[in-house]
Write a structure and sequence with these properties.
Layout lengths: L12 H33 L4 H6 L7 H10 L6 H13 L13 H34 L5 H15 L2 H15 L12 H29 L3 H8 L4 H38 L5 H10 L3 H29 L7
Helix pairs in contact: 1-12, 5-8, 5-10, 5-12, 6-8, 7-8, 7-10, 8-10, 9-10, 10-11, 10-12, 11-12
Length: 323
């Protein structure tokens, strides 16, 4: 007796995609909750009285004022009550109030988020274009060009971000005066900070993409394409590149967290406004509500970026849609 034919699962591609998105979003909620809980615990474990941090190191006030401040920030309640109030605020989009700026943390972060997203997005796009160009031109080839590209990639990956920023500033701002030294004014002020982030990231993505391309160039479908008379450039750009992109896109999503971390250093080197600068100020002044807010925001961005990467991978490789 022949085996009965397997029936396809109910629902089409849209239904399967919707189920994947919902499942990932539910997992993302757990990730954000875990990050928020870790941030709240760190806030409680750090030494020092938050009220003293709010007042400043050399301010002397009456005990009644201290008690009033403690009550206004909810610091006089028990730890479980503070935690439930913290989680409830997150559900309402309330990240608390900055100790130093005396403003809602959500307002502080939203005012700085645009500049950081512009910097990180420009750097990621530049790194990806650099990786595609260099890896496609050097994959599967030997000679001085490939050796030079590999050496430059190794140097860029090994160079600290702040040191690379100082070198670019010295060369292109102080010596040749092609770009402004600091600030957020104009597109030219974005070039050097974006390059500082993009060059190490692009070097790493180039190595990953080159490995994927070299593996794809040995597959039977590329051999078939060559036997059909296609040129080497068309084989690389039209056939092998799509297969080599899959691990590169996945790694780019994972590296975005590091890109946001690198923005802290880069924005400090170039005196740019953004989340990095406000995070550094918050750490130095022990403004923990802002630090915890940045931590929660980073977790949300991480979840959304990984969801976008998963969906993009199904576009690049249609075989993933059936898994």
């Amino acid at each position: 007796m022949s085996e009965p034919a397997r029936t396809r699962p109910a629902g089409g591609l849209a239904a399967r995609t919707a189920r994947v998105v919902v499942r990932r979003l539910l997992l993302g909620v757990l990730v954000v909750w875990g990050a928020a809980t870790a941030g709240f615990a760190a806030l409680q474990l750090l030494p020092g009285d938050p009220v003293r941090i709010i007042l400043g190191p050399n301010t002397e006030v009456a005990p009644e004022v201290i008690a009033q401040l403690r009550h206004s920030y909810g610091l006089d309640r028990s730890l479980p009550e503070q935690y439930l109030s913290f989680v409830g605020g997150l559900l309402r989009g309330d990240l608390g109030t900055s100790y130093q700026l005396r403003q809602p943390v959500a307002d502080v972060l939203s005012a700085e988020l645009g500049q950081t997203l512009l910097l990180a997005g420009t750097a990621l796009a530049g790194a990806f274009l650099l990786a595609v160009l260099v890896a496609t031109l050097t994959a599967g080839r030997r000679g001085p060009g490939r050796a030079l590209a590999s050496a430059v990639e190794l140097v860029l990956i090994s160079t600290p971000v702040f040191w690379l920023g100082v070198l670019l500033l010295t060369a292109f701002s102080f010596t040749w005066q092609l770009f402004p030294v600091a600030g957020n004014g104009g597109a030219d002020a974005l070039v050097l900070p974006a390059l500082t982030l993009a060059l190490p990231l692009g070097a790493l993505l180039t190595q990953v993409l080159r490995g994927g391309l070299e593996e794809a160039l040995e597959q039977p479908f590329t051999v078939t394409a060559r036997t059909r008379g296609l040129g080497e450039s068309r084989v690389r750009w039209s056939h092998a590149l799509r297969h080599g992109l899959l691990p590169t896109v996945t790694m780019a999503g994972w590296l975005l967290g590091g890109l946001l971390g690198g923005a802290v250093v880069t924005e400090s080197v170039y005196s740019r406004q953004g989340l990095g600068r406000i995070t550094l100020q918050a750490v130095n002044s022990k403004d923990m509500p802002v630090v915890v807010g940045v931590l929660v925001l980073s977790a949300v961005v991480f979840v959304l970026v990984n969801l976008a990467v998963d969906l993009l991978c199904t576009v690049i490789d249609p075989r993933l849609r059936s898994r």
